[in-house]
Amino acid sequence: MIIFRLGRIRAPQGPGIVLLLPFIDHWQRVDLRTRAFNVPPCKLTSKDGAVISMGADVQFRVWDPVLSVMMVKDLIATTRMTAQNAMTKTLLKKSLREIQTEKLRIGEQLLLEINDMTKSWGLEVDRVELTMEAVLQPPQESLMGPLPPVPGLEGLDSTIQQLAAHLFSNTLALTADSVETVNETEPPAAAIATGSARGKPSADELLSAVELFLSEPLVGQVGASYQVNITLPSGARSTYFIDLSSGSGRAGRGLPEGSPDVVLEMSEKDLQDLFLGELRPLSAYMSGRLQVKGDLHVALKLEELLKAMKQRR
């Protein structure tokens, strides 16, 4: 209980019996337990033009009852408005895919932003959980339009063609000074074309292509090592690694150096769908197609690698 005596605030009283002077003391009760409120769903436009209806559930507690009474008149209403503004500002910079797959990370980011505002009010937010009501409009098509077809890969999926085109262009750039070297060395695009006779590249071809997209900024974002156990259609199992814990990162066949942070298990088909953008890590995990041994949050950081591959295609 916060008591004002002749306009002067006194030290917090209670819990228990508190003596008040009639006509002199004015008081206000403050609940120190963890409470919650919801941010009503509002329409937002994401970075890629999608229109969504997004709300949030917020848990908070008062840690300084004096500040909570002196600084704001309606604590919940003010905090709700602060949370809504922070949510709107953050989601406008995200694509629909990022919002759907990184809700936990976005919630943690919002938690820090809201607490920066509310700490001077004697209030601390413990949790922010985003809730997507509906996707009112899908993302807009890229204004650049589709890439032209790659010679020799007509009829294949456009995503495979784009990946092959990127690999082929990188190979040409590295060997522009020696035509003989290009003729003697089979470019990755040709390897993908060979592996795509079945419709999609094999696990070996995909993991070889992944190395082209590794970089120090990506390692800084992920900072983890992954062991990937693949079940082939024949029933055999192959082991690969994606090390994004140091340097510019490494990927290849076999076990990673040291103990991996996360072990992933999936079929070759699911690996193909994952790296070609037809399957999302979170959807694969929720449907049981992706088995995770280790921290799920660290496992979902592989989304950063998939985004890097998509951007550079």
TrEMBL record:
InterPro entries attached to this UniProt entry: Band-7_stomatin-like, Band_7, Band_7/SPFH_dom_sf, SCP2_sterol-bd_dom, SCP2_sterol-bd_dom_sf, Stomatin_HflK_fam
A Gene Ontology cellular-component term: plasma membrane
Positions of the Band domain: 1-144
Top-rank taxon: Eukaryota
Entry-linked Pfam families: Band_7 (PF01145), SCP2 (PF02036)
SMART domains (UniProt xref): PHB
Recorded family membership: Belongs to the band 7/mec-2 family.
Name this polypeptide is given: Stomatin like 1
Originating organism: Nothoprocta perdicaria
Native organism taxonomy: Eukaryota, Metazoa, Chordata, Craniata, Vertebrata
